[in-house]
Structures are given as structure tokens and as C-alpha cells.
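Notebook entry, structure prediction.
Reason for the run: the old model in the group folder had no record of what sequence produced it. Starting over properly, with the input documented here first.
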Amino acid sequence: MSLQHFIQNALSSWMRQEGPESDIVLSSRIRLARNLEKVRFPSRFSNEEASAIIALFEEQFTGYEPHKIGKFEMVKMSQIQPLEKRVLVEKHLISPHLTEAPFGACLLSENEEVSIMLNEEDHVRIQCLFPGFQLSEALKVANRVDDWMEDKIDYAFTEQRGYLTSCPTNVGTGMRASVMMHLPALVLTRQINRIIPAINQLGLVVRGIYGEGSEALGNIFQISNQITLGKSEIDIVEDLNSVVVQLIEQERSARKALYQTSQVGLEDRVYRSYGVLSNCRMIESKETAKCLSDVRLGIDLGIIKGLSSNILNELMILTQPGFLQQYSGSELSADERDVRRATLIRERLKLEDNGE
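New structure, fully documented this time:
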């Protein structure tokens, strides 16, 4: 399979698009946690109850098409290989926790903007992903899916507490809103060290690229709300929006100052990283993320010409272990992955040079 064909089939459509403020905000996500009325939470339910939930959703929602979203297809964790699960995690379509759930499943929309996880920490987790800074649009689609589902099933809900969830921190709206941001200048100028504590004090949390417990590889941070009770969904999104707008302004200001005060040093860093990506024969994940971040910054600042920033988004996904092995068609050792990763990066950059 050619790399170009693999990319077209492997990446979700939203990954190949650029949204508003996409030089800094890579993606926006809304996640709604829901549970079925009169069914025990996943931490306590029986195998029979778990199976019944899968059967219910398979009957009621598989193949159906809510307005402007596309048909949903069921993916059962028990029926796919570990490598396939890993790829779904790397595409941000499911959580690592779902891959370990014996009765876990996921309903995926055709364009993969919407995924509905079943029997994870809660019975249902609706997720909507959009490119760039589009939290409000993601919320509209999430609510549309939520309403579509609620017409056919009854949620665990009380007027006093809102939606009931396995984890008390999700009670209320059951909503997590998050944005994935590329903040290299704030890291290089070390301003991020004072910004993260300030964000935490506002009831938001800063995590790595794959959520809780993950590293901020490639200077990519995930900013999300912590409070779900006592605020409406719109209020939560507006609060996060206001913080993201400030972060965008601070990152752009830091980029401008960095370029003005250290132009030669910054250009040297960018071109060294581009040289590594263009010529390496072995490269680990962390070094890849660091080099991709540098090159992406160079593209956004106009240091590197004629290279699309979108291929850097692609490579952040395609160079993950699951994708590398899927493209190779076999499981690879760590060293073999490092070699394959370097080869894939060189091939992708060559496609760009050839205008493909």
C-alpha cells in the first residue's frame, strides 16, 4: 500500500482539515458522560447487564443516521485486535480505559467526528471532535446526538444533581470540554510554568496529548474544564473559550518576541529539526514530537516556506506505534519502530516536495 493511499484511509477526515486558529489550536472536543436509568454503573454491573447495553445500542443506533452526522457503525473491543485498539486510541476516538473493558464497544460516525463509547467508566460517553478552535460547534453536534439518543433511552438524571455519573467529578452536566493546543513559544520562554498554575486556579486542568496521566509531547497541551456541577454547558464552554483566547494571544506574543530577539537561534533550531526529520534513519517518539513541534513553529512563523502545516498534524498521528505497525502490516520491536518511523517521515516529506 502506498503511503498516500494509507494516509487517506487511516486518518479521520477532521485530522486532514484546518479549523479556526489552527496555527495554535489543533482540535476541539466535547465529551458527554451518560448512564442508563435503573442499571448499575460499569464498576458494579454484571456481565449480563453489560451485554444488554451493547445489544440495546446495536439495535437502536447502529446504521442509523442523525441529522447531518452520518451513519454509525459498531466496533466491539472483544472483536478487534490489540493493534487495532491502539490505533483507535492514537486517533483519539476511544480512551485507553475502553480498550481494557471486557464488554466495551464504540459507535463511530462515518467521518469519525463523533464516537460513542459504551461501558467505559460510564455506560455512554459521547465525544465530538472538530479541527481548530470550534468548541461551540462541537457542543451543538454533541447535544444533537444526545437528544437523538435520549428519544430512545432513559438516562439516570435528577433535577437536583443533573446527570448521574460513576465519578462524582462528572455529576451535573456530565460534560468535559477540551482543546488541544500547540504552545512551543510559551514553553521555550518558560512562561508556561506560571500559566499552568493560573489556569488550574480557574477550575480548568492542563494535561498531555492523550489526557490524564500523559505527557505534553511536542509542546501539545490539552486544556479542559474540571467543574461540571452548578454550571450550564454553555457557561462551561464560554469559560474555556475565554481562557483559550488569552492563551492564543500569549502564544502569538511569545512567538513574535522570540523571533525578534533570537531570530538566528530560532531559525537554527527549526532547520536542525527539519534536517533531522528529512535525513534520520532511526528516531524515537519523543525526539519526533520535539522536531515536529519545531518545524510546525517554523512553518507558522514563515521560516520554512512551501511546507503545509497539515502534514505535521498527520505525522503526529502516523508516527505513533500503532499506526507504524498497521502501515507495516506486522508487529515491530522498539528499534524496528524507530527505523520505520524515520522511513515514514522521509517518505511523507518527499510527497510534499513532489506536490502530492
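Summary: The chain has 13 helices and ten strands.
The old model has been moved to the deprecated folder.
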